[in-house]
Amino acid sequence: MKRRSVLLAILGGLIYIWTGTLYISVAYTLFDLFDETTVCLITDCLFAVFQVLGYIASMIFMRKSKYAMGCLVPVTESVFIFASGAAAFLYKGMAGTIVLGSIMSFFIGTIMCYSITRITSDVVFSERGKAFGIIYAVGSVGSLVLSLLDGGEALGEGFILILYAILAIASAFFMIPLFGKRDENVFREEEYLYPVKLKPGRNDMALLCIVFMFFVLSNIGLHFKVPSGAGFESAVFSRAFYAVGLIVAGYINDRSRKTGAFCAFLALGFGLISPALRINAGASVLVQALAYVFLGLPAVYRMIAFSDEAERNHSKLPFATLGVAAALMGQAVGTLAGIWLEQNMTVLVCVMLVLYILTGAGFFAFFPLLYPDSEKSDRLPGGDRKEMAFEQYVGKYGLNSKQAQVLKYILDGESNCEIAEKLFVAESTVKYHVKNILQATSCHNRGELIEDFRNHYLNP
User: Fold this and answer.
1) Domain limits for position 388
2) What is the pLDDT of residues 108-130, one digit of tens each?
3) How many domains does the chain have?
4) Is 192 a domain residue?
5) Which of 181, 208, 224 is the last residue of a domain?
6) Which of 168, 295, 345, 394 has the highest Cβ tally under 10 A?
7) Which long-range contacts (CB under 8 A, 24 or more apart) does 104-108 make?
8) 0.85 cut: is pTM over it?
9) Is residue 343 part of a domain?
């Protein structure tokens, strides 16, 4: 992976560690005020809704403000998250803790929206799966480490806020050199000819429904009870197995988006067979661990699905976070269904089977549209034929030598910043050349330009 891709992934993981663990600490406070079912409804449903609202607000803000992609935005959001989360943790009052926790969730949504958008715009296609996998794996393992402090009681103790503050400050200092003082709006870069739209199309809505159903199913499956005697603390150790699934899923998706999508769908079927495998406490531990490994596959898929579409069509860049928003809503519905049905294993399995069949029908009906045969991840072979096709393509549209250099890097998936570094020119110069290339070829964005060259290569 390129250095910037790794740094962005590590930063995303660092943000995930302290925001996600602060979220858990607030949940610990709620256990002192409510019963287990009520806490589950508050954290998995109410807080999820506010997090989705944060995603939506952040998308609108990034579309409207020219300062939205600068480092000041996530730094400010970090301050709001820590302040509201710490207040919710210390308040110890029913209404106050819920309100403050909702505010915290809202700003967690905004900062994660920012992080996902930066990954989409700055990390090349062939590394994006690994980047998302690393973000959530680092976050899961980091949360696990914090959970083990003080004999597993640290997340409910006041001193943990000091650690959260240190991690928040560290991530803020990490953002400043990585993001810099970026005062232009990434959605209004001159290289793109079409304006940004916030109205999803037919395929967007289909994909939104598919991701939503994926996580309805995955969260219902998590409500299968582990028999007594298993000795398995899922709230802690599940995150370690989840991290393994995330890393594996990242590599699978970077090798082939189609394979990643298939694996994500097949992984949901594990919930259907897991009840039959829980024959004793020891087997239940293994099954529960595997369930969280498999959960990593749809978790990365939700990130990849809309991120790829946003990168391919720049006018949809604000939609990069819709996969996570749909997943959160699916988790909320799955939690409600799981709580309602968890006492009746037979009905729970039957409901999952019906939903799995319906989800599969929708998934495979739209699969050819979402993943056409000329998939972007399938790189064209090199050699004389490609060089000849490149020279013909350059001559066909009358591109000059500088534009040809930039085009070659675009076809390799390089970003403007990376092209500027390799050509030793300003990023604004690269943007100028990209704009002229798009105008000359009548393409609207990079994805369309790459596809146009692919068609030229395959049908010279």
Assistant:
1) 384-458
2) 999 988 888 888 877 877 788 89
3) 3
4) no
5) 181
6) 295
7) 104/22, 104/23, 104/26, 105/23, 105/47, 105/48, 105/50, 105/51, 105/54, 106/50, 106/51, 106/53, 106/54, 106/57, 107/54, 107/77, 107/80, 107/81, 108/19, 108/23, 108/51, 108/54, 108/81
8) no
9) yes
